[in-house]
Amino acid sequence: MVIVQHADFDSAALVADLRRGAARGAGALVTFTGYVRDYDAGSPTRSLFLEHYPGMCEHEIQALCDTAMARWAVCEPTVVHRVGELHRDEQIVFVAVASAHRGDAFKACEYIIDALKTRAPFWKRETLQNGERFWVQQHDADAEKTAGWDTPAQRPEQQS
Amino acid sequence: MNGASTTINVLYFARVAELTRVRNEQWPLPAPITGAQWLEELVSRYPDLAPAGSLKLAVNQRHVAHGTVIHPGDEVAVFEPVTGG
């Protein structure tokens, strides 16, 4: 399930829905929640504005979920991403993955959030407490992390 | 896409949209052209977008490399590297 929305989300309710959907086969459930944080220690953030490309965004995230399900033995993941004006400490993104065993759930959850950061068309505009405003630049480390999932060393065992 | 079309539908996002001051425009395109060639045209119209090499393209809502051919009727999106999550 992929949802892009302005409203906040209830991660406990999303986990309960995923558990219901996965029935009794899921012995492990891994979640990731991303929050608005200070830009850096000396530059407190007032708010973030998240812009997105409707349609392509949902399609890209669904494609990442499909890839995760093909690579690891996991149920249909849940991904919720917020857009619009978000204030300091608010939730931005939620990823939940259920699996029979923890290894696949951890890997699939990490893959989805890593790949989302470099593939899903969202852009963050930061407004600092001092009023300074700018578009956030993609970190080289994020691109490298996503690329790492494509290298043979990181490639998971094939599921039979 | 539409065989009779002689334009592409161009969408701009985030900082790119701030620099072009429009979010969407129809761009005349009578014949296919590579993304790299089209980006040169784009940067001639909006010099603030230079260098073209740092811009990302999506065609019909899919990420594409600059070597991809754009056809009349396509939806072409221009943006900087994404920063969600």
CATH topology of chain B: Ubiquitin-like (UB roll)
What sort of overall outline of chain B do the alpha carbons produce when their principal axes are compared?
Answer: globular
- What is the CATH H-level superfamily of chain B? Beta-grasp domain
Portion in beta strands of chain B: 25-35%
Tell me the number of strands of chain A.
Answer: 8
* First and last CA, distance of chain A: 25 Å
Overall pLDDT of chain A, averaged?
92
Can you identify the CATH class of chain B?
Alpha Beta
Secondary-structure element string of chain B: EHEEHEEEE
Write down the CATH class of chain A.
Answer: Alpha Beta
What layout of secondary structure does this protein have?
The complex is a heterodimer of chains A (160) and B (85).
Chain A: E1 2-5, H1 11-22, E2 28-35, E3 45-52, H2 56-71, E4 78-82, E5 84-87, E6 91-99, H3 102-119, E7 122-128, E8 133-135, H4 140-148
Parallel strand pairs in A: 1-4
Antiparallel strand pairs in A: 2-6, 3-5, 3-7, 4-6, 7-8
Chain B: E1 7-12, H1 14-20, E2 24-28, E3 33-34, H2 35-45, E4 56-59, E5 62-64, E6 69-70, E7 75-79
Parallel strand pairs in B: 1-7
Antiparallel strand pairs in B: 1-2, 3-6, 4-5, 4-7
Overview of this protein structure:
The complex is a heterodimer of chains A (160) and B (85). With 160 residues, chain A is an alpha+beta fold. Chain A is 34% helix and 30% strand. Chain A is built from four helices and eight strands; from the N terminus they run E-H-E-E-H-E-E-E-H-E-E-H. Chain A has helices spanning 11-22, 56-71, 102-119, 140-148, and strands spanning 2-5, 28-35, 45-52, 78-82, 84-87, 91-99, 122-128, 133-135. In chain A, the strands form two sheets. A four-stranded mixed β-sheet of chain A has the order 1-4-6-2, with helices on both faces. Chain A has a four-stranded antiparallel β-sheet with strand order 5-3-7-8, with no helix packed on it. Chain A is globular and about 50 Å long. Chain B is of the alpha+beta class. Chain B has one domain: Ubiquitin-like (UB roll) (Roll). In chain B, strands 2-1-7-4-5 form a five-stranded mixed β-sheet. In chain B, strands 3-6 form a two-stranded antiparallel sheet. In chain B, a hairpin with a 2-residue loop joins strand 4 (56-59) and strand 5 (62-64). Chain B is globular. The interface between A and B is medium-sized, with 28 and 16 residues.
